[in-house]
Each structure stands twice: as structure tokens, then as C-alpha cells.
Amino acid sequence: MNSFIASSTRILVGILGLAALGRANPVAHNAATATMSAAVSATSSSVLTTATPGAPVSPKVVIIANEFEFGYLEAYNFTTVYTGPLFDQVFACTTNGTICKLACGQELVAASQITSLLLIPGIDLTKSYIIITGTGGVNPKYGTAGGAAISTFGIQWEWGDMFLGADLPTNFSGQYFSSYAQLSPDKYPVTVGTEVYKLNDALVDRFYKVGRKVLYEDVSSFLQDLRATYEYDAARQSPFLSRCDTVSSQIYWHGSVAGENVEYYSNIITTGHARPCNTNEDDQGRLLGLFLGAVHKKIDFGRVAMIKAFSNFDRPPPQLTAYQSRFYVGEAATGPGLRNSWNTIIAVVDDVLKHWKPIYEAGIKPTTYMGDLYGTLGGTCDFSLPANAAPGSVQGS
After folding, report:
1. Count of CB atoms within 10 A of residue 121's CB?
2. How far apart are alpha carbons 261 and 150 in whole angstroms?
3. Which residue from 61, 60, 132 is spatially nearest to 341, judged by alpha carbons?
4. Strand partners, 94
5. DSSP bridge partners of 138
6. Ramachandran assignment for 255, one of left (phi > 0), alpha (psi -120 to 50 degrees), beta (any other)
7. Which end of the chain is more exposed for a tag (fewer CB within 10 A), N or C?
8. Within a 10 A sphere around the Cβ of 25, how many other Cβ atoms?
9. Each residue of 174-195: pLDDT tens digit?
10. Domain enclosing residue 131, as ranges
């Protein structure tokens, strides 16, 4: 107990110090932030040659992230940028066109950006392995700040409804539930089809076995003290690669109440198959665009993967409030998390290139169902249930 108190004291002193820096010397604080941002931008900048419109390229790997996150990637030299109608993002490739990057926006806007990319003449992604990456919060039950995750399920929280306070029905223990009327929150809801995407489990297996061999750097001593106070074993570990799933929404959420609500919804919508660990504002929009591309044979959905960094815990440790955790600790593990996830991705890319002919060129066949809730790409969904909206409701009438 004494060590817990001592650790808590150090953490609180650290938090107060961070807050005091911003109050006492905002100019210095802002200058430090600007310097860090400039350094990151400098690492990601390069002189790019614009390809002739319609120039062909058929990459073996495409990596999707936002420009800030690409600032932490130094392994590849992207030399050629491709442009096309309706496309206003950065799609750049290495000199031989083997590896490309797409720097696109967050959440649902990414769907239109990916669609416009797929319409550019000359760009052939039908055999490309597409890796979605970036940063997000981590559920302390499944991972730790500074670590990373490779995921099978992408879950959209955007379709959730919410009641607060006295408006919450008496038989609803959580505030969030499906948009379509349910008799109780534990009943499987009527769906529209974009709530969940399941990726190729066999590809996830392969990438996980490769990625778990990568050595991860640790977080600061401040964050090491913080993680030691969580009650979950996964949270107390040094950074590692988790195998768990992502939940995304355009609304940033944080705290134990929100986290437990998200877990409950994720359990219902995937009938307990998912292990929700990564909170973010990116994945579902990107998956939506890629899935549409798969429907129209522009990509192979069996070659899509998600490997994401954990920049922070999605809920506070026992001694902090959610507000303190969110705004004073914040996303303090962003640097080590991104470096660790990029090193994982580099190892995966190396594996793809090294074993292209014998393993990857023909594709890795999934061993279970892959796709959306409706079997759009073929097969029968193995993580959903038949459902009807509550009788007498707007949807159920």
C-alpha cells in the first residue's frame, strides 16, 4: 500500500507540474509544442516528383495514416506522388512503386478520400496489402500505453444512441445502445450493415506472429509509474503487441463510464467475438471506403490489416479523475507508441516482400467468415444474430 501511495503521489505531482507549466509559462509551453511539431514535420517532408496522370503503379503494400503519424516513419523514401480527379490527398510511392503511403483524414471523411483514390487511372491495388495504422487509446484490460494492437474487428460506435441522467430507461444499465429500438440493451439490434467489419483472421495470425517478435521501447518513467497503479495485468506491462479490436467514432470519448459502455455495445454487436481495446476516430471510415472498393473489385478485402499504436489509456487509474487523465496526462505515449507500431509494420512489410512469391502474391485464404454483417462479399456472418426492432417502435411498426 505504501508503494501505491508513493507512486500515486509522484503521478499527481507530475500532473500538477504539467498543468503548472501551461499556466505559468504558456509561451514556453507553446514554443516547445511548436518545436516538436516542426521536428515531426521535417522528418516527413520530402521532394516528390508528380507522376504523369494515368501512370501505372501496382504496389505490394499500401500504408494508410494521417500526415502527422507518417512523420514518425523513416524507413521508406517516398519519391513519387500520384494525382487524379476528385483526389486531394497525398498518395506517394517508393521509386520502384513497391510500397506506397496514403495520408488521409480522420473518420468518415476518409471513406470518400479512399474512394477517390481508387478511381485514379493507372493505380492498381487489387493485389496490394493495405495496412491501416495510426494512434488511439487503449483499454487497460487488453493492452498498455505505448504498445500497439493488430485487430480482426473494426466496430463503429457512430450508430449508438444515448440517454443521460433521468432520461435513461430503468432497465438500461448503460447510456449507449443501438440506434434502432430494442426492448432491452442486451438484445441484438437491427443493423444497417456498417456497424462491424471483420478482417481476414489468417492474415491477422500471420502478421501477429511476425509483429510480436519486434522489440518495443518503453515509455517515460512518469508513465511507468502511472501504469503500475492500474488493476489490470495488461496495463501494468511494458509496451507489447496486443491482439484485440478497434472501436471508432467521430466523438472522442474517455473515462471508465464511456469505456464500459463501449465494451458492452461491442460485445452485443459482435455476439461476444470482439475484444475492444483501441479507441480512435479513424478506422471505420477507412474500412468503409476499402470495403466499397472490395465490393467493386478494386481491392482484395482479405489483404486489409489494422495495426494501431496506443497513445494513452482510455480511462484513468484509480487515483485520478477522468478529467485529469484526459487533459493533464493526455496522449503522453504517442511517441513511443508510434515508433513501436511503425517497427511492427516495417517487420510485416519485410515479411510480405521476402515471401511474396510463395505466400503473399496469391493471397492468404481466411479460415473463418470475413466481411460485413450482411455477407456482402460472400459467406454467412458468424458474429451476428437475426433481430427485429421493438414492436410498436418507429422501426418496428
Report:
1. 12
2. 22
3. 132
4. 78
5. 278, 313
6. left
7. N
8. 12
9. 666 666 656 677 788 888 888 9
10. 45-156+194-360
End-to-end CA distance of the chain: 57
CB 328 within 8 A of CB 155: no
With respect to residue 37, please indicate whether it lies within any of the assigned structural domains. Answer: no
Q: What number of other Cβ atoms are within 10 A of residue 86's Cβ?
A: 11
Distance CA 291, CA 377 (A): 9
Residue 189 is assigned to a structural domain of this protein: no
Per-residue pLDDT tens over the stretch 323-337: 999 999 999 999 999
More confident residue, 21 or 311: 311
- The 10s digit of each residue's pLDDT in 242-298 is 999 999 988 888 999 889 888 988 998 999 999 999 999 889 999 999 999 999 999
Q: Is residue 233 part of a domain?
A: yes
Average pLDDT, the chain: 86
Cα 126 to Cα 303: distance, rounded to the nearest angstrom: 9
Instruction: State the CATH number of the domain containing residue 59.
Output: 3.40.50.1580
* Domain count for the chain: 1
Cα 326 to Cα 71: distance, rounded to the nearest angstrom: 24
Percent of the chain with pLDDT over 90: 69
124 by Cβ neighbours in 10 Å (0-12 / 13-18 / 19+) ranks as middle
